[in-house]
Amino acid sequence: MTAKSSKISRRPVSGVFLLNKPLGLSSNGVLQKVRWLFRAQKAGHTGALDPLATGLLPICLGEATKFSHYLLDSTKRYQTVVKLGQVTTTGDVEGKVVQSRSVPPLTRDMLELVLDGFRGDIQQVPPMYSALKRDGRPLYELARQGIEIEREARPVTIHALKLVDFDTESLTLDVTCSKGTYIRVLGEDIGEALGCGGHLTALHRVQTGHFELVPEYTLEYLEQLNETERDMLLLAPYAPVDYLPQVQIPEGRLKYFCNGQESNIDHDAVPEVLVFEGERCLGLAEITDKKRLVPKRLLNL
User: Fold this and answer.
1) What fold does the segment set 15-74+210-231 form as a domain?
2) Mean pLDDT of the chain
3) If you placed Cys at 85, which of 103, 160, 223, 279 could pair as Cys (CB 3.0 to 4.6 Å)?
4) φ/ψ of residue 240, rounded to 5
5) Are 88 and 97 in contact (CB under 8 A)?
6) pLDDT tens, 127-173?
7) Residue 123's Cα: distance from chain center in Å?
8) Segments in 48-121 forming alpha helices (H)
9) Cα separation of 276 and 258, whole Å?
10) Quick one: pLDDT at residue 148?
11) Residue 193, CA distances (Å) to 83, 159, 285 in order
């Protein structure tokens, strides 16, 4: 039974589910499946993974979608395998092999020297097989028609790049990187730096922002649970920003805040703060240097 073929009653459930995305399904496909299982009125993911990729895909339900952009912009960590000696059209195993070259003898010292050139702030040219748009059209649509256009290099940051393992024709890497980094391009560029080219054969995301992968949180696991058990797996709607400082709403100011109005608060200036009434999160606000509490994003819980 699929989400498309079933008519179900939606409900205003809110929270974050840390899905372990399976191989072969699109991010939107698993998003709709999770939304259907929770009967959620609203849902969104926090940074797409290609069908080839697996691992952590935080799903925001209901009011949690108001904070999803914080995860879109966050640091990500991946484990990946780069096959050397072959260049493909897509930069991964799904593409057609367009070039084959011999792989030089590999040593850890030589590999570490090459990898060091990719650590820190680097420039990266986005791939043609990507969702970036040119004149309103995704680049992957042009690529499928055999059209290649010039793309400008963009700055990204490789916070950490660890050589986990290697053999005569492949590298296993652990990569922590900034928003906008294409691991496929990183694999291709490392292959070029080694003089033999390369492409990804596996990509697994293990961290998004401060969220870490929970391996057992699969679609199959969700399907085995009843609705109450599923709800118990949800993190709080404000979980994407639960690292921010928290304040209690001043007495008598609840109505003003919930109406989106500024009010006084005896607190030092803070650019972003979570506002609570007891244990209930009311939303996100700014406290100005004039001790004004300014609502920025309200939660309807």
Assistant:
1) Pseudouridine synthase (3.30.2350)
2) 92
3) 103
4) -60, -20
5) yes
6) 756 566 666 666 666 556 666 666 788 999 999 999 999 999 999 99
7) 20
8) 68-72, 108-116
9) 11
10) 67
11) 14, 19, 47
Closest by Cα among 207, 240, 180 to 78 = 207
Fold match, 15-74+210-231 / 76-200:
yes
pTM metric for this prediction: 0.89
Computed on alpha carbons and rounded to an integer, the radius of gyration of the chain in Å comes to 23
Name 19's Cβ contacts closer than 8 Å, sequence gap at least 6.
30, 34, 56, 57, 58, 59, 217, 218, 219
Task: List, by residue number, the catalytic residues.
Answer: 50
Angle between helices 183-193 and 108-116 (to 10 degrees): 120
What tokens does 267 get? Answer: 């607190």
In contact, 194 and 87? CB cutoff 8 Å: no
3-class SS letters over 215-246: CCCCHHHHHHCCHHHHHCCCECCCHHHCCCCE
For the domain with range 76-200, which CATH number is right: 3.40.50.11890, 3.30.2350.10, 3.40.50.1010, 1.10.10.10?
A: 3.30.2350.10
Give me the CATH topology for the region 244-298. 2.30.130
What are the residue boundaries of the structural domains of the chain, listed by start? 15-74+210-231, 76-200, 244-298
CB-CB contact of 295 with 283 (8 Å)? yes
9-37 residue pLDDT tens: 999 999 999 999 999 999 999 999 999 99
Block residue for tokens 């290609």? 50
